[in-house]
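Two proteins, back to back. First:
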Amino acid sequence: MVITEAKNEPFPLISAQLQENVAYLNKLLGVGQGPGHSWDIMAKSFNFSELSMMSYVLNGYFLTMNMVLLLEDLEKRIQMFVAQNDSYTLQDLINYLNTNVAFVQVQAVPKMEDVVRFILSGPLVTLVDGFDVALLIDTRIYPMRGIQEPEIERVIRGPRDGFVETMLMNTALIRRRLRDPSLRVELMQIGTRSKTDVSLMYLEDVVNSDIVNTVRERLQSIQTDTIAMAEQSVTELIGDVKWNPYPIVRYTERPDVAATALVEGQVVIVVDTSPEVIIAPITFFQLLQHPDEYHQYPMVGTYRRWIMLIAAFITIILPGIFLLANFHPELVSKQLSFFKADRTDPLPLWAELIVAEIVIDVLRIAVMTSPVTLASMVSIMAAIIFGQFVSQIHLLQPEVLVYMAFVMIAQFSLTSYDLASANQMSRLFILICTQLGFAFHMRALGFGAGLAVWWVFLSTRKSFGIPYLWPLLPFKWKNGMDNVLLRKPFSNIHGRPGILHPKIQKRDG
């Protein structure tokens, strides 16, 4: 056997000579001591009866006492098997161990590539002298934090369990809510170096096969060395995002939201090491829905849904309307006089709005990145300096502070942080268009043109082939706009989003 030196060379076959396999793996994985070696990959040789073996396991992926008990049982079972059989194959041994070893999974691994992948994934992999197949016993216990309440999609009433960084636990949280035999969980690895586990989940008898095939093919076609940024890396690689600020998938930390999406005919992508799962495809209006709406009575949930819709559009157009009203004060009625700025400052009004936007973002980032012990102090300093003295030194007008603070509150009220950030980019674009319209003496044409460009941009976007503004464009009322505007009683929810073309349209069928 030739030891592979370059990472891009193909993996060799598993040799029947144990020492050749050990030499190759030790060289490839850096097993040993001293510089250039990895201390966390454990290699332990065993001699059970007449069998010489070398076992590899990743430190930190098992409990020591469990491993000791397993090895003791394994030694006893192998000795009993060898004593009862004069000739046998490794598959015969595996079949015997599957029946007699008190552990969940024992399987054969015929390829060296899979041997390496499994060693780096955590199971106990054993190579036996005289056999060209490896033995795998899944002893993994993933390091993980406890299940906690989601940080973003909080509810007043409802479940408090949220996803964690372990894919196995995340799929189990969804399975707990969907005990459906048609629920499929396909496993794949992404990244030539990271080999990150990714699961594609869907209801086979509900979801449109074209959607599943599209997402699966895009996941499998990813060519990258690592997806260290987890769900964001996967989204950008499969969604052809480029410079589009609007999210084409929905992220959620809540198992109930993911389970609901599966029932409606969407797919869920679970990326290991991420506490958020990806829901695709989605629309603009789905990003505005909040799980708390479904933990309140329908009328209250409908009212909240309207508030969210209004807040979303306020974050986009309010600064532009404020600027436009001050460009043409003669068009502002007495009832809307609160849109007028009362004084003239050194900076033009459009510059004050942008300065306020930047300052608020700086303060937000400062609070996010500051240690917990300093975050409150940063907030207090910001409230004193920004709230009291900025107006006194004529940097920003009080009206600018009021409107930008209202816009930021509306922005933070949105369920999707990605949608809120995209709306901020649109807000700045419309603000600049409004100012250019005034500079070139086109009155309100600049604001109107900016709003039109934003609308055309959204109306031409798609999420995995689904129109982004559906059910508004193309318009559909039943199982469309009625679900956008109304939080229906559960007894009245019978259909699935028609744009997804699910195999079963009725929810109760």
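And the second protein:
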Amino acid sequence: MVEKYILPIAIMGIVAGLIAFALSWSAKKFEVKQDPLFVKVKEIIGDINCGACGYAGCAGYTKALTTFEDNLGKCRPMQQESYDKIDALLKEAKKG
């Protein structure tokens, strides 16, 4: 009785292993690398997504800042200490 379940279970295990391998490989192959400056600034800004800056979300504003398309100072909920940290990061990025 148990023998009739062994082959289907083995086949499912092999298929699952192949799918796991394919997913792992594709995750590495198609990984989207982010700009380290974007990641640092985004961590400081956070994810309030209030739209007060004129962008749909914090990620849009962060991208505009890190590509130097917009000026710092539009995020109303952000504290002065965060502004100072981001300003220092952006100045350092402009130099390098």
